[in-house]
Structure formats: structure tokens, C-alpha cells
Specification:
By secondary structure, the protein is of the alpha/beta class. It has ten helices and twelve strands. The protein has three domains: 8-91, Winged helix-like DNA-binding domain superfamily/Winged helix DNA-binding domain (Arc Repressor Mutant, subunit A, Orthogonal Bundle); 97-163 and 266-304, Periplasmic binding protein-like II (D-Maltodextrin-Binding Protein, domain 2, 3-Layer(aba) Sandwich), CATH 3.40.190; 164-264, D-Maltodextrin-Binding Protein, domain 2 (3-Layer(aba) Sandwich), CATH 3.40.190.290. α1 crosses α2 and α5 (108-118) packs across α10 (279-295). Residues 7-63 form the HTH lysR-type domain.
């Protein structure tokens, strides 16, 4: 196992001598004797076999090699500060890691705004973001595999805070045969290729969406589905916020269904284990709430038990 010959204190002193412009200045800032600093840097250079500093008059100047080592020394001291801060935070009950599961239909700009609010307060907590769909979102809640979950379905026994309304609508390519139909019924749709999003659950169930087509292709996310439709193949129910601009540009066509032309539901914020959410989790929770309040998209009342599906 590797054992370093130099010490962190030697690197800290070397960095201070450079930053403060000399041994005397650094000694005053570090509250150490100048001779102690001279000895530490001399010992460091002797150990490395590399000249880091050269003294001209009363000032110390970096050598070319010293410039390279200084950059690495700054990274070293920064990492040590972060390591000790992490230990301090954990000692205070601050989570080292959080997992946020997000239903794929949820608008990412709202999520990203929340992450911007959370980051300055995160204290180096490692955040894992999981994309989930349908049963996968429910499993993240029921199994407690995520600290916070944004879902389209609230399982029984849990409370969900409504975040934003989602509108799903059926679309296809403007040149697709379905696009030329002035009015469509669901029976006609069943004879055409439908693009659906894969349920991320370990035991996926067909919980929502119209899934009666004779032929279905399953993809991982809405962007893959949109890409396939832009090539002229299939139709899919997709969130309005993802395709509104493409429809306006004439690159995708909204299908004219006689019934069930749109599907609307809310996404909800759920705490699988509210009593176990630590300080960092609470900061993330508040950031998510604030982000959606700023958008003006949330409704005021929590929902318990099961709600609408997530598409």
C-alpha cells in the first residue's frame, strides 16, 4: 500500500508561501515562525527531489516545476477540506447521499430550477437522480429505494403533494396515414404502430395509457419515441410540454380523436419515509416546493391513496 513521504501540512505551507508572497508574510498569516516554514518547504523539496521555489531578495518565486505542483497542491487541500466537511456534516446527521426518483413525464425545467436552489445548500451531499415510469415510480415509494419521489401515482398509505398538471396527447408525423384522417376513433388507432415508454418497475404492469394497438414498440424515454415519430413511424401519447414546439413547427401532428383526445393528471411529490428525511433531504424538499410554487403550477391540497396514472 502506498505511503506518502510528504505531508499535507508541508503542501499547505508551500501553498501559503506562494499565495502570500514570501515566508515572512505566510508565517504571519499561519501564526508560525518563519524558520518553521523554511524548514517545511526545504524538507518537501528534498523529499521530492524537485525545486519548487527560489528566493530572490525577500520574495519567493515559483519555479516552472513549482507551478505544476502548486495546481495539484490546491486540489489536494481542497479535497481534504471537502473530506473533513463531509465528516462534520455526517456527524451532524447530514446525509452523505440522497436519491430522487422522477417520473419521466415531469417537466425537467421545473426540476432543474429546484436543483439550482438546492445546490448551494447541499453541503456536498451526493445526489442520485433516477428516471422512473409507472410501476417503477410506485416501487421507489413502496420499497423506500428513494428519499423523495416525483410520481404520477400515489400508492395507498402515502401522501402526495401535487406539483404540476401534465397533459398527454396523441401525435404522429404529418405524413403518417393517421394524420390525414379528419376524425379518428380508438378502433382505427389499434391497427397502427404505437410507440410506448418502458415501465421501469421490476414487475411492470400496464397501469395507464391506451395500449390496444396490434403492434407496439417499447422505448426507454419520450425523446426516443419522438425521434422515431419524426422519422415517419408510429404514433404515441407524449407530454404536451415536450412536443408543443414541434407541433407548431409542423414537424409533428396532433391526432384528431373523437374521444379521449387528451389525458390530464398531476405529478406528486412523495416522501416514502417522512420521519427518516434528514437535513439535506429537507433542503431538497423545500427547493422542489419553491420551484413549483414559483411556476404557479401546484395546487394547494395534498392527496392520499391512489391517484391518476403517469402515462
Amino acid at each position: 500500500m502506498f505511503r506518502p513521504k510528504s505531508t499535507l501540512e508541508q503542501w499547505r505551507i508551500f501553498q501559503a508561501v506562494v499565495e502570500y508572497g514570501g515566508y515572512a508574510q505566510a508565517a504571519e498569516q499561519l501564526n508560525k515562525s518563519q524558520s518553521a516554514l523554511n524548514h517545511a518547504v526545504a524538507k518537501l523539496q528534498q523529499t521530492l527531489g524537485v525545486a519548487l521555489l527560489e528566493v530572490r531578495g525577500r520574495k519567493a518565486f515559483l519555479t516552472e516545476e513549482g507551478q505544476v505542483f502548486l495546481r495539484r497542491a490546491k486540489l489536494l487541500t481542497q479535497q481534504m477540506e471537502e473530506l473533513e466537511l463531509l465528516a462534520h456534516n455526517i456527524h451532524q446527521g447530514w446525509e452523505a447521499q440522497l436519491t430522487l426518483a422522477v417520473e419521466l413525464v415531469h417537466p425537467r425545467p421545473l426540476l432543474n430550477r429546484a436543483l439550482q436552489l438546492y445546490y448551494p445548500q447541499s453541503r456536498a451531499t451526493q445526489l442520485q437522480l433516477l428516471d422512473t415510469v409507472l410501476t417503477g415510480s410506485m416501487e421507489a415509494i413502496s420499497e423506500g429505494t428513494a428519499d423523495l419521489v416525483i410520481t404520477g401515482t400515489v400508492p395507498r398509505g402515502h401522501i402526495g403533494e401535487p406539483l404540476t398538471e401534465i397533459t398527454l396527447l396523441p401525435v404522429c408525423h404529418p405524413q403518417h396515414p393517421l394524420a390525414s384522417e379528419p376524425e379518428l376513433n380508438l378502433d382505427l388507432l389499434s391497427h397502427h404502430l404505437q410507440i410506448v415508454i418502458r415501465d421501469t418497475g421490476k414487475q411492470p404492469k400496464e397501469l395507464g395509457g391506451w395500449l390496444k394497438s396490434d403492434q407496439r414498440w417499447t422505448v426507454n424515454n419520450f425523446h426516443e419515441a419522438i425521434g422515431i415519430m419524426l422519422s415517419g413511424l408510429g404514433f404515441a401519447w407524449v407530454p404536451l410540454h415536450l412536443v408543443e414546439q414541434l407541433i407548431a413547427q409542423g414537424r409533428l401532428h396532433r391526432l384528431n380523436l373523437l374521444e379521449h383526445a387528451t389525458r390530464k393528471f398531476y405529478t406528486y411529490l412523495v416522501q416514502p419515509n417522512p420521519g427518516q428525511l434528514g437535513p439535506s433531504g429537507q433542503k431538497l424538499l423545500e427547493a422542489l416546493r419553491e420551484s413549483h410554487r414559483a411556476e404557479g403550477s401546484a395546487v394547494s391540497h395534498p392527496v392520499k391513496a391512489e391517484t391518476g396514472d403517469a402515462g
